[in-house]
Amino acid sequence: MICSREQPDVLREEAPLSHGRLTVRRDLRHTVYLDELTHTLAADWLRDRYRRWPLTSNPYLLVSQQTVADDRLPPVSTMVMRDIFRPLGLSLSKLRQDRILDKARQTADPVHLMRIFGIAAETAMKYIYAAHPERRSALWR
Fold first, then answer.
1. 41 — pLDDT class (breaks 50, 70, 90)
2. In the 8-state DSSP scheme, what is residue 25?
């Protein structure tokens, strides 16, 4: 759930993974429905987080070795996330765009994209049209 704007806050208490969704706090609360891969990775992360740092009081879902020790520190910063993906030649925004486009190829359902990625209807349709150009009506050409 990383986006091009400032990183949203996800508290571990707001991560009811058994229901396959996360609550993300940007300006308002937003429910993100997780696809199977993301759900599996988030559940694995939570297990690993609790194994590594069972006594942490840091309330954020994503923490680092530095932020886990002090709950006054912010969650994992965008810079930390960038540093993870940079050696792979990936940017967070490109990775997110690729995930949305891949899901659009699989489902062609704009409502599904809106629910999973928290994007607007217009944005979802742009991804659908990019993934399935044959579905674009003559009016949009």
1. confident
2. E
